[in-house]
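User: These chains co-purify. Model them together.
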Amino acid sequence: MNILELENLSVEVEGKRILEDINLHLPEKSTMLFFGPNGSGKTTLLLTIAGMPGYNITSGSITLNGVDITSLDVDERARLGIGTGFQLPPEITGVKLRDMIKICAGGRPGDDLTKEERNLIKRFKLDDFINRDINLGFSGGEKKRAEMLQMMALKPKLLLLDEPDSGVDVESLKLIGRELQKYLKASGASAFIITHHGDILEHLDSKYACVLMDGRIWCRGNPREIYDTILARGYRECAECHVRHPMED
Amino acid sequence: MMGDKEKKRVSSLTDLPHEILEAAYKSGIEASEDKRSATYMYIDHSLVLSKVNEHFAGRLELLDTKDALDKYSWLQDYLWDIIEPDKDEVTKSVFEEFGGGYFIRIMAGARVEFPLQSCLMISGKKVKQKVHNIVIAEEGSEARIITGCSMHTKAERGEHLGVSEFFIKKDAKLNYTMIHNWSEQMKVRPRSATRLEENATFISNYILLSPVKDLQMYPMVYCEGVNAKTELNSIVYARGESRVDIGSGVVFNAAGCRGEIVSRVMAKENSNVKARAIIRGNASPAKGHLECKGLLLDDTSVIHAIPELVGARKDVDLSHEAAVGKIAEKEITYLMSRGLSRDDATSVIVRGFLDVDILGLPPNLQQEISSMVDKMDLGL
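Assistant: Joint model of the two components:
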């Protein structure tokens, strides 16, 4: 059973074609990493799956757990089990981190935090941030920890994480990686993670990776092998390799 | 009902007629009195309730300004000390004749831990109220005061002219929250000024959530002593054809001063809001920041943000940010990505916009704010 299936997915943003005929199946209880140079369409792909407005699907379909979600709004997809950790989450005046945790947990802003939620906050070292406006004045690492904390409260079946490791210090990276892996293992959820770095791989149990360039998938394989290749020979090798070994879906 | 000619001192808030009590509630007054230090209620031009002095013997004194002027000859030196009587028609009118007001004196070194509540209320129809308030926070004192200015529901039309002068002495701290709940037929003209001495702190919170016919105010804070600090926060929700012209001003006249002005304005239903602010740096070093956020909830209203910075010394550090518009789409979709519907996401953002961390607001006022937001036709 696949948690996520993308069939012939093409996407435009502001009239410009960004993604071209993407086909991808993510088996349940699995983690897939997405590599690709800047501007290759990774974030567009992730936010299209999330259902964010502005990402216009011109053809193809998105299926979550066997349900076609192609025409569903972002909130409907969230309620079906998609959790999105943003690369650049917005600041919202007067909406506290604690409110966000309650909202993710299905409660209302201002509700009391449960013991479990308090433990979670402690584990993410965000005790001093719970009564602050979400993301306002947070450092890059604090934003990423706050995003992951919200994911843990949301308890999604599929996590879509846009660079959870960028701008994050070594200790925070370890924290985020370990908490994520712990959650995935305990819940049986799947994850779709965009990254530019291999460091997060050390903490994740992942068998799948893709390389996205110019809005198309050029390579699939083992995350460590792909990352090492990119590190050694750059993304150009992915293109050349693609020519040598045409990819099967 | 308590009319002009039935002025009397009442022994407890619960002795007051229900309508007056309810209006008081809306302005942040708790009936139980158990969570407040003391209660002082002012209806029309007379004192009706004063339990403060026995509660705070030796720490705080509260009198009608007229009584205080009779009692203390030195108070004449404070009257009209930081506001010019001929500043405008309002001050001229109050200078010629005023019907009282409150005099609050926080004794040197005293700590008033809980908010002291004082309430100005207008009862009876077509009342013209003229008051002169004087607040003196003596050296090293620390106090929090909540003032609710409220209309009795029977008073459909009225005019409030109020002059307030605040004196924050050396090392003193005053946190002053004012919650206005006027009627839609009310014309309101407060004239306020504050003088800060060395190392003094003044925090002012102004909240206006109900419609008002016409409100115009521009309280000024003068930092005259070195290292004086001030924060001026205001939350205005203008609706029902409200006309609001509200400003806050800070003047640095001594070295080491800091000031911050934050205003949040929401407008709808053919309302018009001018949100002004000015920081003047006449001495250095000094640091000032002002922030004005305006949220338009429909296409019939206007928010005009007018932030001004005036630096007259090279070592002043003054900055501002101002934004007027509708709710940012990315904030709505962010909340929607957490499972909220568009309407719920909008409501959370609006409620957040109205939320401030103001100490000591009674729960019923918090609820009032929440239910008001819940009932709002957001018109987005």
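Residues 143 and 209 of chain A are 25 Å apart (CA to CA).
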